[in-house]
Design brief:
195 residues; mainly alpha; 9 helices
Amino acid sequence: MKSRIALSLAALLTASPAFAHLDPAGHGSFAAGVSHPVFGPDHILAMVAVGLWAVVQARRTGETRALWLLPTAFVGMMTLGFLLAMRGVELPLVEPMILASVMVLGGMAALALRMPLAGAAAITGIFALFHGHAHGAEIGAAEALPYLAGFALSTALLHAAGVAGGLTLAQRSATLPRVLGACVVLAGTALGLAG
């Protein structure tokens, strides 16, 4: 099981930057939005980490609302970050904060940190703001609303994959979602060193 996780993360990290974004002119704004988070290893890792942390939070606190609240907080605040970028509002340290989101959210899952649900949602939302801003800054020629709908959908699906994977792993062992969270941190470290 651990070797499969390691191989999957290695595949994510070797994804070619040439496939990072679809051209809105050739594929449409919605498809360009869908592709934006899916072909960025840092985005994928952060989205999956949100789902894993939601599972760990739900199991540690008994608050099953974490399973939908953390992903919802992420998508909502990501949308706000996108709108800020569309309005020309600058945020400092966008790329470092995206990388930090991988490390912190993966670390939260790995350490199984127990905290009030509102605090967990706030931490998740703060990082989401930077992810959304990056999506907005890289919109190119895409139309805003279809692009937003596309990346919101793919983000929600990545969160769902993290939640589903975490729940499936937790049925085998309570520590497996934490192990995967640690793998996310290691993959984030590798991205940081490579960048």
